[in-house]
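Reposting from the mailing list since nobody answered there.

I have sequence plus structure tokens for a pair of proteins and want to know whether others read the tokens the same way I do. The first protein:
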Amino acid sequence: MDSFLKPALKYFLIIVVTLAMGFAVWLLPHGKKQRDESASITTPIDAKDEAGRYLQQASEDFFYHEFDHAIENYGKAITAYEKENRLKKAAKIYESLGDLYKFRTRIQEAEAQYILAMNYHHKIKNPLGEARAMNRVGDLFMERGEHAPAGDWYKKGVELVQDVPPHQIQAVLFENMGRIYWKKEENIPEAILWYTRARDTFSALENQMGYDHMTAVLNKLRGGQNLNTH
């Protein structure tokens, strides 16, 4: 790739990489809410801090499929965040490494990075981050049709967050539990319970997109349940 093309690509590079790595963007329609620092590691264009520059370079490496260089720069970003005592950020980069390996269909290595993320989040007493990493492993198996291990990871994540104040990670885990009971167990009443919890959590977060989606799923499940009783 000629060097003069890189500046032109830089302004949409982060968006492309974010989509490729599977990050979710949620609609908050009732006003802006303060975001958790660990919600995203996407860096601004021309980041000024050391860790941000490494992340930006890792994103460029990923875009050009220079994966070994991306891994190296993610590692440097972890070290930089640790020096700055921004440990939630450092822990989340392991999740991004897991996403990178998942993108390359190197499943065992992806799982290993997610587990490293869990261990790091656990060490710094960040249950939401730990549960998010568990959810990512669950997704890894769910997307391969391996419902049993996916459900096990989702359940572990739920155990960490079921009693915390409403949070997006919590809502997503509740939704995934509903999917397990619907698709794997074919237990519609239990699925309805979990989807209802997800809907109520999205409602508390004023997340209209999540709320509407859960409402549509619940309507479908309840409609099918009524048909089965006749």
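The second protein, same order (residues first, tokens after):
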Amino acid sequence: MKRFAMRIASAALALAMCAVSVCAEGGAPDADTASQTVDAAAASLNIDAKSCILMEASTGTVLYESNADEALRPASVTKIMSVLLVMEAVDSGAISLDDEVSCSEHAASMGGSQVYLEPGESMTVSELLKCVLIASANDATVALAEYVAGDETAFVARMNERAAELGMSNTHFVNTNGLDDAPDADSHLISARDIAIMSRELITKHRAVFEYTTVWMDSIRNGAFGLTNTNRLVRFYRGATGLKTGSTSKAGFCISATAERDGMQLIAVVMGSPTRDIRNEGAKTLLDYGFANYAVYRSEGGASGDVPVTGGVEDHVATERGAFCAVLKKGSEKNVVETVTPAESLPAPVKKGDEAGCATYTVDGQTIGTVPITAAADVDKISYWGLLLRLCRGMLM
């Protein structure tokens, strides 16, 4: 009994060592992860904008920020949330990319950037997404919103609900497109951090958007109407993948720029720049800073061997460890050491997913995170008769 108690204590100690820090790629960042800044002492990058932020997409780690929580007018960057809801509707099966959408009088009445939809004109969901993500078409955005939710008001309510679910604490939407002259436009506000959060949700869970956002030029209506991407970085910045520009007289020039190099995906948000070119230079400066100074370390996880089970119908249980990733100073990702510490034993019954140790990741002796080792199967507790039968078998061998 004393040995059994010691094994239980050892297992408990091993589990207590596991302060979980897991990167689940494609997931939304929690409040702590999204606000974590790798290099708080980074020198100012002198971005000419009211606010900006640089986020690594797979972890939600913030690499640089300036005034990132002030709620400002986002202009057409608003459409990231509109597209997110459309893509979620597609993924859930509520709508299809091939569905034909008929344009309403209301959608056709939108000003600003548009593809001049006529009332009653039909386009597929995919064609309308192309119009939104390449040409920033307000009429196409409203047509999609009405198709998904029945009317624009209901869709905007869902935009605000989704923002709350994602932890976007400095956001309030009143329309689908960010136009200055829309009703209640003065209260249509969002922060740079919140734009990065919704951008991350879109690009990590709905990578199909890159089929639209990486296109420089395209057309609709059988080639009769040309589309040119409002995001010039797609053409001129290496690794650019999107995502959405916006500008109005009151919002200034805004962008959520995404790019990917060497397995690292970055989101650079710039709000309130005085000109388009200054906005684009600001985004490029942020992206260049991120790619030059940081890298992502990844461990895919997998099988982690067997752990003894005490008092179970099986003597051992297979275990597995989860995936882990972390943003590190460039070069240090090559020095990561993974140390696997399984529990000495586990008491039955064991349920699949029960913690059975941990894997710790260090750089130069400093812990950068841990992931749990978990049981890969159930192991029931052995009954009295089962134990007796096991003893008898042991005596006969």
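Reply #1 (J.P.):
I read it the same way you do. The mean pLDDT is 88.
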